């Protein structure tokens, strides 16, 4: 287990940054089942960033669904990372793609999908989706992984 690298969980203190999201904030730990494909879903119900043009706050939800390879994201560090967008100016589409890129950089998942469900501004709700596949994933495994993700999607929709 990559327990030595967990700097936020159990530390007794949290360092909050509100304007500089950086992948260095995220901690990872070893997958409890390397070699088995399974879904981890992380839902951030209170995501906030700033419009880069007007400086007005944008509110929304960020949903991260991923299939880990060797490493998993520690949830408290993800919370701190997402909180760092609070005073950061970026368009919704950039936020979602940056989140995906940073998670891929720290844990290299087999598959990841990041969805931003932002509150409407000016009568238009923006819902960007970004997807990434790990390297060297053959078509058979892609099909198996997508079936697991679809199963999760069906389950999560039934809970709403």
TrEMBL record:
NADP recorded as keyword: yes
Catalytic activity of the protein: 7-aminomethyl-7-carbaguanine + 2 NADP(+) = 7-cyano-7-carbaguanine + 2 NADPH + 3 H(+)
Active site: 51 (thioimide intermediate), 58 (proton donor)
Compartment annotation: Cytoplasm
Main location: cytoplasm
Any GO molecular function: preQ1 synthase activity
Protein name (Swiss-Prot/TrEMBL): NADPH-dependent 7-cyano-7-deazaguanine reductase
């Amino acid at each position: 287990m990559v327990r030595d690298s967990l700097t936020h969980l159990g530390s007794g203190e949290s360092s909050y940054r509100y304007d500089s999201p950086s992948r260095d904030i995220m901690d990872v730990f070893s997958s409890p089942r390397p070699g088995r494909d399974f879904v981890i879903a992380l839902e951030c119900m209170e995501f906030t960033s700033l419009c880069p043009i007007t400086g007005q706050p944008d509110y929304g939800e960020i949903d991260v669904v991923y299939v880990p390879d060797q490493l998993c994201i520690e949830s408290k560090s993800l919370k701190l990372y997402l909180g760092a967008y609070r005073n950061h100016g970026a368009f919704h589409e950039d936020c979602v793609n940056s989140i995906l890129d940073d998670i891929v950089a720290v844990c290299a998942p087999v598959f990841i999908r990041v969805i931003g469900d932002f509150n409407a501004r000016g009568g238009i709700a923006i819902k960007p989706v970004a997807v990434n596949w790990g390297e060297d994933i053959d078509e058979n495994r892609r099909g198996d992984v997508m079936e697991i993700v679809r199963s999760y999607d069906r389950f999560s929709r039934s809970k709403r």
